[in-house]
Amino acid sequence: MFKPLPSDVLNYSYDNFYQLVKERCGDNVVEFMKLLDISSVQSLLGVENLFDYLEFNSEKLNAIKNKLAFQHENVLVEVKWGVRNSLECLIQDLKTFSDNNQRMAESIVLNDDTILSSSFLQKHPILKCLINLYKTIDDQNNEDNSENTSFFNYFLHNISSNLCRSKNAYRYNEPVLRFAMAFHVLSGNIAYEFVRLNVPGALPALSTLQGLPLNKHHRMKEAEFRFDSLSAHTNSLKTNIAFAAEGCTAVIKKISYDSLTNSFVGLVPHLNDGIPTTLHYQTDSFKKLREWFSTEDRSDLINIHMIQPITNMQIAPNPFLLSAFGTNNKYEAIDIIRRWIWVFEQSSLKNVRIVGFSTHGDPKYMRAMRLVTGFFATLPNIKLNSYTNAFYVKIPKEWNWYFLGDSHLFLCFQDATHLCTKLRNRLLSRIANMLIGNHCISIDYLSTLIRNIPKLRHGLVKSDIFPQDRQNFSSCVKICSDDVTKCLAEIHESEGIIMYIRLLRSIMIAYIEKLTTPINRLYYAWFSVFVSRLWYIWIDYMPKVDLEKSLYELSGITTNNKKKKKKQFFITNNAYYCIEINAHQLTYLALLVTEKKLPAEAMNIYLFSSQTCEGMFRSARSMSGTFSSVVNFSVQEFLNRAQKLSLLQKLKLK
Record's superkingdom (predicted)? Predict the structure, then answer.
């Protein structure tokens, strides 16, 4: 047992302070204090997370670091238990002593009935307002029989308490800390510091926020897959099934140093069986760093994995960011497949069953999906259906229109929003000359519609048929409206484009619209498939000469280029495969639900797309600072913004 602290211990500094630390913690801790220039009790109480300074690489700290902590090969610093315990006990005793002194000082003032003179109230009119405010609050609580304390009360109490202390002794209650973290995420550094400096005692410093356990828990490292956090997230939602999505977006090619991990971010991580290596670019050698700068590629894309939990909640839960890493898109379909299998296996170890994966229609991902599902492609060395936890349903033999097997490890869906924009871009393309039967599918019919029929009847404008914005999904919605179809019926020889619009509309109803019933999803999914198949068969059957002749007779366009193939008269192969795979996988999903192997909520297919990735990218871009016009980000900047978004979401749930 240590002897009680002296009554004047809060005023200890220099020799007296170091002697106290030596008695309670030892000479090594005294040396550590001197290195950090902590020379008094007040300065010690004002420091947050003292041992975090041992994580920095410094010649002066290295010697004392070996005395106070164990240093592992992965650069992790673990403070010795005895050192940590003795110092934490000393700090806790000093804080308790300080708080007791504060309460004693307050009790001397508050125990007596203090009578405030009118002159004092006139000098401080805010006291009148506060008295009236708390009278009103008490009256409202009495009427509602409620004793809940509002955040405003916590906030005022925190400010008034801190203003009676020295700046080194400021304390913040839990509601104020949560508010400060949310305010920092939403406002940025400049606005946060502006408010903090102009309202003393209201908000903690940024260094205090960064050291909070909740903030540390949501820190993201490049190429780190957060399976433990995923398990905690799904457990909080009381579910163990989820759908995964993978997507990319362009980033600024910039290399940054991450001081928290002692690594460089912005260089393309090496792939090991499709899995990016975590903290690959760590070095203390300038020669090695210079070699990386001259030989390694810089990331021009960022790849993320989002997980959408499947629950029976009326409002769908927010998706979870599993990982993010930079890439240059130089990988193969087999790398994608291996990464998906690894994500599936690691999630299963955490009791999370990944139902399927969704991506956009990149050729690599399309090939990966065809290989995984067995859609006229096979994996020679990987038997996914041999896994013990693979799905299995019995496919009726008379389904000769269904081309997939009865066993799948997980499902695959192409993003329907991207598919719709692909079909729109094909329609607006000047290169493609689509034909079906005796009708031409051309943008000219829409141009005629806009010129000759009032806008109030169809709602289209010229910008809706401009192909410059290739991801304009709202244009797809307007083009596919019933009003546009009715107006097109008034234009001569427009049956072809009406059919094409119905094809596009059926995909939206099947995969994107929320209110579509499961049976209607299946109907419209296979409607788009059978229309596409019949169209494909007709194109394949017709001689190219006859197709060119029909095109010339219908539109006056001649195609004398012999290198052009018949595929110019049809939608792209990528779009066709998307239509086929999505319909097959939707049917398989419906069979799983019918056989009670998945809950009915699994048919909410509109949630299972790579739009979760696009939503994350949009949210990250929206977090630019108040005085910044740059909406894009580097890899490290995205990780920082993703950490803030994750933290904000956690605060909303509390």
Answer: Eukaryota
More confident residue, 518 or 50: 518
264-273 as b/e: b if 16+ CB within 10 A: bbbbbbebee
In tens, the pLDDT along 596-610 reads 999 999 999 999 999
Token digits for 416? 């329907």
Rounded to whole angstroms, the Cα distance separating 447 from 544 reads: 28
For tokens 């904000």, the residue is 648
Task: Decide if 56 contacts 31 (C-beta within 8 A).
Answer: no
Three-state SS string over 611-636 comes to HHHHHHHHHHHCCCCCCCCCCCCCHH
- Amino acid 452 reads N
Q: Where are the alpha helices (DSSP H) in 542-610?
A: 544-555, 573-594
What are the backbone angles phi and psi of residue 517, rounded to the nearest 5°? -75, 155
Query: What is the reported pTM?
Result: 0.77
Q: What is the dihedral of CA 359, 365, 371, 372, to 10 degrees?
A: -30
With tokens 């012999």, the residue in question is 562
Distance CA 26, CA 82 (A): 10
The mean pLDDT value of the chain amounts to 86
Q: Give buried/exposed letters for 455-481 (b at 16+ CB in 10 A, else e).
A: eeebebeeebbeeeeeebbebbbbbbe
> What are the boundaries of each domain within the chain?
9-106, 218-239+246-333+630-654, 416-593
- Indicate the length of the chain as a whole number: 654
Report d(CA 371, CA 377) in Å as an integer.
5
> CA 369 → CA 329, 331, 463, distances in Å?
17, 15, 34
Mean pLDDT is lowest, of 106-110, 267-271, 447-451, 469-473, for 106-110
Residue 294: predicted pLDDT: 93
Given a cut of 60, whether residue 180 has pLDDT beyond it is yes
